[in-house]
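Researcher: Next sequence.
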Amino acid sequence: MYSSGFLEWGMNVYPAPEPHQDIEGLHEIGERIAASDPLSTVLKLVVEFVSTVVKCDSCFLYVLEGNDLILRASQNPHAEVLNRPTLRVGQGITGWVAENKKPVVIGRRASFDPRFQSFHELPEDRFEAFLSVPILCRDKLVGVINLQHRDPHIHSQREIHLVSTIGFLVGPEIELVRLEAEDSKLSELSEARQLVKSAQEILQRDLRIPEEEAFLVLQRESRERRKSMKEIAEAILIADEIAARRNRPRTC
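Model: Next structure:
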């Protein structure tokens, strides 16, 4: 159980910030989202805001990519682990939160929780209290926010609701960025396919070979030159365009 109205021996309870501070912080995050700031900027602002209104020793924000939770923002500098796969869904307390889409609130002895798993590259593994909240978009998990305390700490209802509210606010933005990235990849793939097809047609015409053989030529050139097939196709198209210009009759 957690409570916002009493003190427990040996546990830290920090005074709640003024309500207007919460509103101002949420407003600034919303403003950055509305202004289409880079996602990294928004996530950094979220971590800074959470760390201010909920006093803690560390705050991590993970974004779900595939089945991996990627550490995208941290209260403390962790250049060696930032922006790379950190843990998988179902792994540790954070992974449990991601898998079940439910918050975990632990006031003391977090390392004794059966879901706990140590990650030695992060010094924040040595903590007593833990608050982990899923970031959702239409009931779909997109990330997790973690707050950790080195000493025992009572997480109030206000703290839990506030962090959850932030998750609801940034969840759709994270999902939008993910979808835009997928669309961009699909667009690039479609463009590459069209370039390869055009290059094939040029090779068929100039070398008088069938379509399958033209594709094999492109594939062989790609391997030998250690270039992508798109790059080889672009070079063929440029060379064909230059040759066409040279063969055009000059006009006075």
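Model: The beta strands are 58-65, 68-74, 85-88, 104-106, 129-137, 140-149. The domain at 19-182 is CATH 3.30.450.40 (Beta-Lactamase).
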